[in-house]
Structure formats: structure tokens, C-alpha cells
């Protein structure tokens, strides 16, 4: 099944959802409306940190046009001492993030919500809600939150026996790290910081919710998982899952940020109270203030090596910002930073730090880019010190199949060296670089690598043969960027029919079996695996039907080019039966043809990536621009190469923004000062060059098509690759992101 | 939720009358690229919006000959860019106006709006200050003309008196050997607000600067005309010493703040860097005339 | 509250609507007129998802009052494909996978069409700077820029 001569797998087909998306017909979350619909709006905290002493909603409720007001009291309570896990989330924190309970923990924290006949009336009503706050001192950055005298956000959080903003720790170790450093010829240690960055999806969070008179709820919203929407809404409202139908709208970008919810449970209770469908749409300002960015970080990484470049010891301390409530992705830096390298002695420690900013959410390879920024910068310096080619040094230290990963399992396939080699042999790496093209302008080149676990998990796929002999495939995963196209390729290939005869749709929670989130580079892996199993079952049914018609054994029938054929001469001589012919006879031969397969998929091997970048620095102004970028990654198998390349290109450009321009800026009162696209500064089209994606396809032997996973790994290397290139250009290493013009200028002045 | 009125008068007199009558509760709508954002953010809540784009004078571009132009205050950057001669005479002014926002924003944003929004970082203003453009204003007490640099009074404030509307900009004749240029420092390549913006307008003869004007933005509460920088350039052949002296004058003129877009130290340094770069472009254009 | 009555043309069809003076063109397109193909990403002119044309001029619908449409010709993404046939840009975007989530796509297409009407042979740099007002967070812009340039080449070929 994994043949490079495949007709559809690996073909650049037109996506099934394409025409609607280029004509404006595709319905995203804010595009939906219902008869009798009213508007919900959230009142948000004006303070970074405050005790909520009381909330008086009476004036708001009295305003003409207001239909309902809710506060945290209306929701199912989740006491702080009783963990309730839902996937990687803890409902104690989700409940408090969706509506503040005891305290407002960040500027923009939801306090109450109103539903009214128009957005204007709802906004007016929010102003009439009287909240008595006791404003407390705040801490924004990690450095401030971990000081001994820092304002404590949560009394119930203890670290080393004392109240602390450190909400949790994670430690991975192997060998004896101190012994390892003692054996090293060269040891490099640096401390790095990075600021939180937002996923930056262009579609703000939105939903339309109907709570019907019979208690049944319908939710239209975009997310990275309709089942997550249903489960969280159910837990927070107490409504059973069987009564909540979560319909996935088209999703306008997520990148991890839509793996949790903000509005849906609030809209459900507003709808229940008002008896009307309720629509809620965040403004960009709300998205920036109150939805989850990736954490900021404070990291110290120390690595020791022998003269020949053999790495002997590595130690990492990774403090990650959780935001106002616990839950930063520690397994990202702690587990991924050293995972690609066979280092005998490792101690990797992570600290989850709460502070007065919006609660973090997943963002593409959560936590891994941070760790790679530190680790890959230190490795670059070691290579320089030892006079080694940085790529050679990486190849020399690559983990091998059978090595035990620091995060637990034993490595199966390891394709790290192949990604390094792809860059080493690419013309980019050896192209001449004009280091000083004009006065005041310097250029440099940098490389870095990255690791991501990849993932499998639950997936459900239905394959139904239509009465006219075509195919409808239903999956349970929102399509964030081409997964329908990939599944259409797989199904067309396996059934041996033209791609245009396969339609792929995303089912809602009540029409398709449970399917886990779209995230972690898992969806194509999982859904292609389950679609394959589903198609195999359907092919079995088709053979059975042909067997009945021909009155021979089903084992004597093969399926080829969309037709049932006698497997050999012994089977008898019959003219082939096409899918269309079998579909036409379906009812008389036993009924409709189709199936649903549900699996908890396993076997997603890790993803490796190695990147090479050229930068140009305007020395007087401190501006860094990326001139050329090449990204190599082993994807296992590219079911649809265009969307695989697109994942790599998109991830790289997000990494460029993270490295050079994106950051949250706070005023002295702890309020976000740049809650919009204008001053948050994501890369625009003219900021970046073409991104060359080197798609390496070494099939994953544990997957029917060889898929490994794509989306996360591309954002892991860019921060370090760019920092290494800037160092190459200027001879000055940068330890703090973003490398924005004022920072670059100040660092150059400091370095003389 | 007070009711807002929308008026689109077809004559200037009507507009002035309505604007004066609203006594401060009205906003003039040209391109609206600042006004609508401010209304949405709740920063401005006008009782009346007066759309001036139906007034012919407001959107006219007149080539007065010899490089002189009169352009209506509400002309969009995109319209100005398509004019056959304006950009040849005033390339620096045109590039400054067309650095305001995206192509979409340039389809609406106007120099009049940019000036009256009174942001110290407005891109068109330093270039128009350097150009020596004159603003024609109409108000309840009639018409008056002032240099561009006389309009801004501070962030978000102008010297316009109640009921006064900016009607047009008049650009002087271009002697032989003229050239202007504008550059701004922004972190990205587009879509940012200037951290520092600087316009230079030169008249050169035989490689020697005869006349110079320097406009500097985003480093003080208002856009500045930096006369000391101009003095340093006049009479020079833009030698390093003269450029350094002019750069120093620009740095000395800076009274910036630390904010989300830049630090005091950074802005001050950049003002000097930009002076040298912009003067070089203006000189090249002057030589090409 | 008294509303303004506006008579305009949208995608070639005469349209009338009532609006508040403060309503943006985007509010009216997406709300009463049901033309939700024009997207709202920021409401402040920074993302370009609401790009439309007014008398052929590319603008952000969020930065224009609905009242200003009186007597104008408005173009939106819903009018880009004519008689059920995709515009060459729409077709090329599909063929070259120049969209992932697709939320920025209507705006990018409207902006790209406006570019090619003015400049049938843009350089990569011209495409990139023209599209600087259209944020895309998925694609890294690579395939968008290539699709616009390839469409331009095809359209030049067709004209010849």
C-alpha cells in the first residue's frame, strides 16, 4: 500500500473543501446565525490580579433588551483540592479560566457574561455589572513570579513546602550528570529567555448555541476537537454528553490554541437562562488578552562534550509560564530538548510557573521550541569552540534505534541523521554568503535541529458507499489545513477509484464516533490508519457481495482498480463487478455497504527536523531579516505533498515571528499594551522569503501508508537556527527573544 | 448608545456649518482609517460624522505647473499614486503617504486625515513638513493658510480652531535640482507604525546643497521641522562631516518617550541613522532632475 | 433609532439596506446582507480578511462606514466567480494549495485580483508588498505568492 507509484497517495489533488473556501461559502464559527438569536458578551477584569469580593448583576439584568446574565456561580463547581482530568487539561483550572471564581488572575479574565438583543446592548449591560475588587500586587514575568517576595497567586500552591507560584515540576534523568561534566573537555552553559507568543489564528473564537426547550443543546463553533467541546461543556454545565451536539464549523486556524474552549459553556447557560439561541464572537482584543499564548520561558542549559564532539552530559532547567492558572507544557522542553542526542548523562527539570497573564494553551509542539532555542544555541557554541561543523556534530551524536529515550520508550526508527544530511548536502548549506554586502549590513548562516514526539490516539472513520457507487468518508477530526484532502487520497487509492468520486466530511459529535483533538501532529497519522481499516472492511463487504452474485467463495475474489475480480483462473470466469454495479445491487444482496471503524491508534514515531537559514542584519538599526530558509523533515509519507510542505512553511514562518518580532508588551499595571495585530507584529508577506521544504519520506513501518506526522516539528528549530545565524553574522550571541531591533541594538552596544 | 448622525455634504460651506454647529461633538470622515478604529475602541464617540469626500475640492489633485501641486485633504494615497505627475515631482511625499498601512488602507487613507489625526508618528507629515507644504484651512471665520508643521499641537491634538476643516495641501514649485525622500524605521517591512520617520527635501546645484528642509516624526509630541539639520546640510556637498552634524541635530531635536514601539535611546539613535540615509536618497533624486 | 437608507450595488446587483450611522460596511455585509464570505479577523484594518473593492478600489470593509456605500459599486468574494466558473486565481489557489484553514483566503483573493488588474506581471517583491496587509498564519505565504505569480503568467498567456 505504500508504493511510490501510487496514483492518489502522494498526488497533489484538489481538496474536497476547496471550492467553498475560495468562494466565501465555507461557514466558519462566526458565520452561523439562528432564528431568534441574541448576542452574548463577556465582562472582563480590568485588573491583573484582584480578589473578587462581590458581583452585582442587578442593574445589568434590569437593562431593557438584556435576556440573561451568568457568573461562575451558575456553573458546576470544581473545588481546588479535587483534580478532574480531561485529556491534558484539569477542569479545576479550565472552570476558573472560563469564568473567574475567587480571583481575577489577569487583565481580561472573564468575570461575568450577558446575553441581550444586540451586541451593543450586551456591551452596555456589561458596564452595568458592579464588581467589587480588592486589587492585589501582580507579577507578569517568570523572573518576577519566582522571587521570594513575589505576590502569590494561589494560596493552595506549595513548592518545597512553602506557598509559591511554582505550581509543579517535572524531572527526567539518566546517568550521573555531574560525573559527565567532569569527563567533558568543554562545557558551555547559558541562560535564555523567551516571551509568550500567541498562536495568531486569524479567526477569533466564536460560537452559536441553542439550548432547546427539551434540554437538548446544539453548539456550532470552530475548535480543534468537537468532542473536546462537548466534554468540557458537559462537565462545566452538568448537561449529559448525549444531549450536547457539537457541530464543527470550519476552523480559521488553531495551531493548538483551539484545543480548549472559552465561550461555549457560557453561551449554553446564557441560552438556557434566556430561552434563546446565543451567539458570541470575541474581538481581536479579547483574543489577544484572554486566550492562551504559548508560554514564555527562562531556561538554563549546560552541555559538556569531548574534544571530538561527543556529547557526554546535559543539564536543563526550564521555567515555563503557565499564566494565571497551572498547566504549562513542561514535557515539551524537558522531554524534547535532548531527545535527538545520545547523551549518557542528562538531568532535565521543568518548573510550571503561574503569573498574572492569560492562561497558556497549546501552540505547535508545545514547549519544544523553547527548549530547542536554548539547547541548539549551546550546541552551536560547542561546535564553534571545538572547530567542528555543527551538522557533523549533530550526526555524530544522533540517537540510534534501540536507544532508550529520556522520556521513557525505546526508539524504533530514528531518522534524525537523514534530516541533517539533507541540509548538509543541500546547495543552500554550501552556497557562498556575501558576509558584508553593503556598509552597515552583515549576513550570517545558522543551522539547528528539532524533535517532536508525534502522536496517535483515538480516531473514528466511517466509509459509506452511496447508492450510485461513490464514496462518502466521515472523520471526527476538524480539518485545520488539508486533512480531508489527505484522507480522500488514501481512500481513492485503496478503493482504486478516481479521487473525484470520494467525498470527505467532518462529522459532528452525534454522528461520528469519538475522535481526539486535531493536534500534536496526530490527525493524518491516526485518521489515515483508521480510514485504511475502514476501507479494508468495506472492500471485504464488496467481495462478499460479488461472491454472492457469482456464487463463489469470497476468498476467491480480489479487489483491483475499483472492481471485484476473480482472484485466479480456478475461481471461475466472471466479468468484473465495479463499485457502481455492486452498489446498484446492494439492497438485494444484503443491504447498504459501509462501516465505521474506531481505534486508539499507536505507532507514531517521532519527528525530526533540521533547518538552515541565512539572515541579514542592518547593524545601525538592529533589524534582522531572513533571506533564505531551507527546512528538512522526515514526514514518513506525504499523503498530499502540498499540504505537507504547507505545514512546514507555515511552521517556519511562525518560528520566524517568534524569533524576531512577536511578543506581549505590558504596562506597569499589568495590562497588555499591544492587544492587536498592529503592535503584536506577526510576520507579513513582505517580511519573509520563500521557504524551501525538503520533504523526506522514510516510511513509518508502523503505519499502513508510512505516515509519521508533520505539523509540530517545523516550529522547533527556527528560533535557534535564526539566533545561530545572527551570531554568525555579528559574532554576538543572543540569549533573549525576540531579537527585535531595540534589543539587537542594545545587545550590540553592550557587546561593544 | 447615543444616536450618531451621518452627513455627507457636497459643499465646503455646508460641511463647515455642520462642523461648527456640532461644537466639538462631530468628527470629520475622510478615509476613516483612524476614525473607525477609534470609534470601535471607544476612544472617539462622535455625535455627528461629517463625510467630506463628496466635496469636489477635497478629492481634487491639481498640477499647478513647475512641480507645484494642490491636493485635496481627502485624496487617498492610492489615488495620488496613480496621478501621472505628482510622484515625479514629490516622490518622497508620495512614498510617505503610501507607507500608511496596507494597500487596503491606502485605498482610503488621506494626507489630511493623517495630519489631523495628529499622531506624532503619522508617515505623511514629516515628508510634507520637509516639502514645505502649506495647508489651506476653512472655518466659520473664513479661509487661512499655514505651514503643515503649524497644525500638530500634541498627540491627538491640533491647532485647528472649532469648526475648521483642512481643505488642501499646496506644494511649492520645484526648482531644477530638487529631490525629496522619506524613510521610516519599523520592525517589520510593512504594517507597523513608524518608530522614527524622517523626510528630507533638497535643492542642489553643482553638487552643493542650496536649500534643505528636514521633517522628523515619532520622536516628540509633534512632528518636528529640524532647522539645525537643514542648516548643517545647506552649503555642503553632503560630506560625512556635514551629514554627521545634521544627524547630531536630529538626535538633539528628539524628545521621545519609551513606549511599546521603541525606547528613548533607540529612537534617538535611529533619528541620526535615518537622516544620513534619507539625505542620500534625496540627493540622488536631486541630481537626477 | 432612525436608520440611514443606502442604495448601492454589490457584485453587480442593486441592493438597498438600512444601517446605523456608525455601522461598518463589514457589519452590514456579514449581518443583514448575509455575505459572510468577507471575514472579520481584527476590525482594525490590520489583517485584510475583510478586503472588498469599492468602485474597483481595494479597501478593508471594517474601515468603511456602511453609509458610505451610497451610489458606489461594492465587490466581495461572493462575486469573484462568475456564472459558477472560478476566477483563475481561485482555481490556482486550489491547484497549488495556497490555502490551509482558508479564513484569510477571501481577503487574499480579493487583494490579489486587485493587484493583477493593475499589474499583470508583478515581481515576487511586488506581490509580497501588495499582500502585506493580508495576514496569513497557516501558509507562511510561500504558496500564496507562487499561486498569484503563476496566475498572472497564465492570464498574460491567455491575453496574448
UniProtKB/TrEMBL annotation, chain A:
Coiled coil: none annotated. Residues 23-137 form the Aldehyde oxidase/xanthine dehydrogenase a/b hammerhead domain. It holds the Pfam family MoCoBD_2. It comes from the Bacteria. InterPro entries: Ald_Oxase/Xan_DH_a/b, Ald_Oxase/Xan_DH_a/b_sf, Ald_Oxase/xanthine_DH-like, AldOxase/xan_DH_MoCoBD1, AldOxase/xan_DH_MoCoBD2, AldOxase/xan_DH_Mopterin-bd_sf. This is Xanthine dehydrogenase family protein molybdopterin-binding subunit.
TrEMBL record, chain B:
It comes from Roseomonas alba. This is Xanthine dehydrogenase family protein subunit M. The lineage of its organism: Bacteria, Pseudomonadati, Pseudomonadota, Alphaproteobacteria, Acetobacterales. Keywords: FAD, Flavoprotein, Oxidoreductase. The keyword Oxidoreductase applies. Residues 1-176 form the FAD-binding PCMH-type domain. The keyword Oxidoreductase applies. It comes from the Bacteria. Coiled coil: none annotated.
Automatic annotation (TrEMBL), chain C:
Residues 4-80 form the 2Fe-2S ferredoxin-type domain. InterPro entries: 2Fe-2S-bd, 2Fe-2S-bd_dom_sf, 2Fe-2S_ferredoxin-like_sf, 2Fe-2S_ferredoxin-type, 2Fe2S_fd_BS, Beta-grasp_dom_sf, Diverse_Oxidoreductases. Pfam families: Fer2, Fer2_2. The keyword Iron applies. Keywords: 2Fe-2S, Iron, Iron-sulfur, Metal-binding, Oxidoreductase. This is (2Fe-2S)-binding protein. It comes from Roseomonas alba.
Amino acid at each position: 500500500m505504500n508504493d511510490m507509484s501510487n496514483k492518489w497517495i502522494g498526488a497533489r489533488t484538489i481538496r474536497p473543501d476547496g471550492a467553498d473556501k475560495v468562494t466565501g461559502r465555507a461557514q466558519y464559527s462566526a458565520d452561523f446565525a439562528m432564528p431568534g438569536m441574541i448576542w452574548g458578551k463577556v465582562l472582563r477584569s480590568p485588573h491583573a490580579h484582584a480578589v473578587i469580593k462581590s458581583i452585582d448583576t442587578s442593574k445589568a439584568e434590569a437593562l431593557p433588551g438584556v435576556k440573561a446574565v451568568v457568573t461562575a456561580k451558575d456553573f458546576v463547581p470544581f473545588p481546588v483540592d479535587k483534580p478532574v482530568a480531561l485529556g491534558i487539561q484539569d477542569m479545576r483550572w479550565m472552570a476558573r479560566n472560563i469564568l473567574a471564581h475567587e480571583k481575577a488572575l489577569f487583565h481580561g479574565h472573564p468575570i461575568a457574561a450577558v446575553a441581550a438583543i444586540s451586541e451593543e446592548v450586551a456591551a452596555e449591560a456589561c458596564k452595568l455589572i458592579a464588581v467589587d475588587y480588592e486589587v492585589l500586587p501582580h507579577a507578569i514575568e517568570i523572573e518576577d513570579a519566582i522571587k521570594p517576595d513575589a505576590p502569590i497567586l494561589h494560596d493552595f500552591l506549595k513548592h518545597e513546602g512553602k506557598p509559591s507560584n511554582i505550581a509543579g515540576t517535572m524531572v527526567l534523568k539518566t546517568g550521573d550528570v555531574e560525573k559527565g561534566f567532569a569527563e567533558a573537555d568543554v562545557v558551555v552553559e547559558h541562560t535564555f529567555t523567551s516571551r509568550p507568543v500567541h498562536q495568531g489564528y486569524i479567526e477569533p473564537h466564536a460560537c452559536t448555541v441553542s439550548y432547546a426547550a427539551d434540554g437538548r443543546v446544539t453548539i456550532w463553533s470552530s475548535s480543534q476537537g468537537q468532542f473536546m467541546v462537548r466534554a468540557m461543556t458537559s462537565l462545566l454545565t452538568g448537561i449529559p454528553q448525549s444531549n450536547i451536539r457539537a457541530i464543527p464549523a470550519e476552523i480559521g486556524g488553531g495551531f493548538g490554541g483551539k484545543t480548549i474552549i472559552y465561550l461555549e459553556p457560557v453561551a449554553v447557560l446564557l441560552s438556557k437562562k434566556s430561552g434563546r439561541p446565543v451567539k458570541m464572537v470575541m474581538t481581536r482584543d479579547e483574543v489577544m488578552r484572554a486566550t492562551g499564548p504559548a508560554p514564555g520561558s527562562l531556561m538554563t542549559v549546560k552541555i559538556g562534550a569531548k574534544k571530538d564532539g561527543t556529547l557526554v552530559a546535559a543539564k536543563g532547567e526550564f521555567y515555563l509560564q503557565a499564566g494565571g492558572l497551572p498547566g504549562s507544557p513542561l514535557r515539551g522542553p524537558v522531554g524534547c530538548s535532548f531527545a535527538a542526542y545520545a547523551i549518557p548523562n542528562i538531568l532535565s527539570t521543568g518548573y510550571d510557573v503561574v503569573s498574572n497573564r492569560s492562561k497558556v494553551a497549546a501552540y505547535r509542539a508545545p514547549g519544544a521550541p523553547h527548549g530547542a532555542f536554548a539547547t541548539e544555541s549551546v550546541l552551536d557554541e560547542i561546535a564553534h569552540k571545538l572547530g567542528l561543523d555543527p551538522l557533523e556534530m549533530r550526526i555524530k551524536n544522533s540517537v540510534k534505534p534501540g536507544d532508550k529515550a529520556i522520556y521513557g520508550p525505546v526508539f524504533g526508527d530514528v531518522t534524525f541523521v537523514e534530516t541533517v544530511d539533507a541540509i548538509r548536502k543541500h546547495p543552500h548549506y554550501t552556497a557562498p554568503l556575501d558576509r558584508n554586502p553593503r556598509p552597515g549590513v552583515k549576513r550570517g548562516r545558522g543551522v539547528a535541529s528539532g524533535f517532536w514526539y508525534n502522536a496517535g490516539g483515538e480516531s473514528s472513520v466511517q466509509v459509506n458507499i452511496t447508492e450510485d457507487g461513490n464514496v462518502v468518508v466521515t472523520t471526527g477530526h476538524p480539518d485545520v489545513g488539508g486533512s480531508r484532502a489527505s484522507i480522500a487520497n488514501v481512500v481513492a487509492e485503496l478503493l482504486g477509484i478516481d479521487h473525484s468520486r470520494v467525498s470527505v466530511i467532518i462529522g459532528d459529535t452525534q454522528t461520528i464516533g469519538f475522535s481526539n483533538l486535531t493536534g500534536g501532529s496526530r490527525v493524518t497519522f491516526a485518521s489515515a490508519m483508521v480510514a485504511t481499516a475502514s476501507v479494508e472492511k468495506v472492500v471485504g463487504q464488496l467481495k462478499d457481495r460479488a461472491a454472492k452474485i457469482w456464487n463463489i467463495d469470497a476468498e476467491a475474489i480480489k479487489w483491483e482498480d475499483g472492481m471485484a475480480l476473480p482472484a485466479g483462473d480456478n475461481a471461475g470466469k466472471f466479468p468484473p463487478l465495479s463499485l457502481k454495479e455492486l452498489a446498484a445491487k446492494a439492497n438485494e444482496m444484503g443491504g447498504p455497504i459501509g462501516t465505521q471503524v474506531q481505534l486508539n491508534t499507536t505507532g507514531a514515531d517521532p519527528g525530526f527536523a533540521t533547518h538552515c537559514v541565512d539572515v541579514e542584519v542592518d547593524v545601525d538599526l538592529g533589524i534582522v531579516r531572513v533571506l533564505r530558509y531551507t527546512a528538512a523533515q522526515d514526514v514518513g509519507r506525504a499523503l498530499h505533498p502540498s499540504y505537507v510542505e504547507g505545514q512546514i512553511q507555515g511552521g517556519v514562518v511562525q518560528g520566524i515571528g517568534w524569533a524576531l518580532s512577536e511578543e506581549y508588551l505590558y504596562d506597569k499595571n499589568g495590562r497588555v499594551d499591544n492587544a492587536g495585530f498592529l503592535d503584536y507584529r506577526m510576520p507579513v508577506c513582505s517580511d519573509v522569503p520563500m521557504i524551501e521544504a525538503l520533504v523526506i519520506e522514510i516510511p513509518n513501518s508502523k503505519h499502513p501508508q508510512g505516515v509519521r506526522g508533520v505539523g509540530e516539528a517545523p516550529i522547533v528549530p527556527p528560533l535557534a537556527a535564526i539566533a545561530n545565524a545572527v551570531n554568525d553574522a555579528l559574532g554576538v550571541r543572543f540569549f533573549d527573544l525576540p531579537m527585535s531591533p531595540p534589543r539587537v541594538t542594545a545587545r550590540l552596544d553592550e557587546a561593544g | 448608545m447615543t444616536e450618531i448622525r451621518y452627513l455627507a455634504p457636497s459643499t465646503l460651506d455646508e460641511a463647515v456649518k455642520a462642523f461648527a454647529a456640532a461644537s466639538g461633538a462631530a468628527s470629520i470622515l475622510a478615509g476613516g482609517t483612524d476614525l473607525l478604529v477609534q470609534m470601535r475602541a471607544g476612544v472617539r464617540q462622535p455625535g455627528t460624522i461629517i463625510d467630506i469626500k463628496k466635496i469636489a475640492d477635497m478629492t481634487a489633485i491639481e498640477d499647478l505647473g513647475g512641480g507645484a501641486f494642490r491636493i485635496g485633504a481627502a485624496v487617498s494615497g492610492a489615488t495620488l499614486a496613480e496621478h501621472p505627475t505628482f510622484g515625479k515631482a514629490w516622490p518622497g511625499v508620495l512614498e510617505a503617504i503610501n507607507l500608511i498601512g496596507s494597500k487596503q488602507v491606502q485605498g482610503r487613507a488621506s494626507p489630511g486625515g493623517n495630519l489631523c489625526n495628529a499622531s506624532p508618528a503619522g508617515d505623511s507629515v514629516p515628508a510634507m513638513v520637509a516639502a514645505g507644504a502649506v495647508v489651506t484651512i476653512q472655518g466659520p471665520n473664513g479661509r487661512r493658510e499655514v505651514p503643515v508643521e503649524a497644525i500638530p499641537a500634541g498627540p491627538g491634538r491640533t491647532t485647528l480652531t472649532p469648526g475648521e476643516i483642512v481643505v488642501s495641501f499646496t506644494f511649492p514649485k520645484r526648482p531644477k535640482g530638487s529631490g525629496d525622500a522619506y524613510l521610516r524605521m519599523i520592525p517589520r517591512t510593512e504594517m507597523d507604525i513608524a518608530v522614527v520617520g524622517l523626510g528630507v527635501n533638497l535643492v542642489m546645484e553643482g553638487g552643493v546643497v542650496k536649500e534643505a528642509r528636514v521633517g522628523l516624526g515619532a520622536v516628540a509630541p509633534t512632528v518636528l521641522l529640524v532647522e539645525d539639520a537643514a542648516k548643517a546640510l545647506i552649503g555642503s556637498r553632503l560630506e560625512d562631516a556635514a551629514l554627521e552634524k545634521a544627524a547630531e541635530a536630529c538626535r538633539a531635536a528628539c524628545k521621545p518617550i519609551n513606549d511599546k514601539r521603541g525606547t528613548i535611546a533607540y529612537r534617538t539613535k535611529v533619528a541620526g541613522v535615518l537622516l544620513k540615509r534619507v539625505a542620500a536618497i534625496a540627493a540622488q533624486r536631486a541630481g537626477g532632475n | 433609532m432612525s436608520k440611514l437608507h443606502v442604495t448601492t450595488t454589490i457584485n453587480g446587483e442593486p441592493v438597498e439596506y438600512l444601517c446605523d450611522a456608525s455601522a461598518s460596511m463589514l457589519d452590514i455585509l456579514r449581518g443583514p446582507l448575509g455575505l459572510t464570505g468577507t471575514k472579520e479577523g481584527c476590525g482594525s484594518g490590520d489583517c485584510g480578511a475583510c478586503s472588498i473593492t469599492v468602485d474597483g478600489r481595494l479597501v478593508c470593509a471594517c474601515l468603511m462606514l456602511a453609509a458610505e456605500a451610497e451610489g458606489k459599486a461594492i465587490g466581495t468574494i461572493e462575486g469573484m466567480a462568475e456564472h459558477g466558473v472560478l476566477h483563475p486565481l481561485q482555481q490556482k489557489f486550489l491547484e497549488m494549495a495556497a490555502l490551509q484553514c482558508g479564513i484569510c483566503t477571501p481577503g487574499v483573493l480579493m487583494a490579489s485580483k486587485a493587484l493583477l488588474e493593475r499589474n499583470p506581471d508583478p515581481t515576487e517583491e511586488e506581490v509580497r508588498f501588495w499582500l502585506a496587509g493580508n495576514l496569513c498564519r497557516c501558509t507562511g505565504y510561500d504558496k500564496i505568492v507562487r499561486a498569484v505569480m503563476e496566475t498572472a503568467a497564465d492570464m498574460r498567456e491567455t491575453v496574448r
